[in-house]
Design a protein that fits this description.
By secondary structure, the protein is an alpha+beta fold. Helices cover about 35% and strands about 15% of the residues. Strands 1-2-3 form a three-stranded antiparallel β-sheet, with no helix packed on it. Strand 2 and strand 3 form a beta hairpin. The radius of gyration is 14 Å and the shape is globular.
Length: about 70
Amino acid sequence: MLPWDVWGLGWEPPEQPTSEMLAAFDAIAALTVDPDHRLDDLLDRYASDPSFRMDGTVFSVALGEQQRV
């Protein structure tokens, strides 16, 4: 995976993120403010929410296509 690869929860231009997406990003961001103290919460979220896991396929922005990794 590279910095310009996209997977999981997201959107593609010209779409805009939904309020549900923004709330999910805010919730994850709050957990990462102090990850040492929120590690169990982070692991629980990762385990329970497939939208934050990479499933083996990414969209390569550099190449403009889906790729298996």
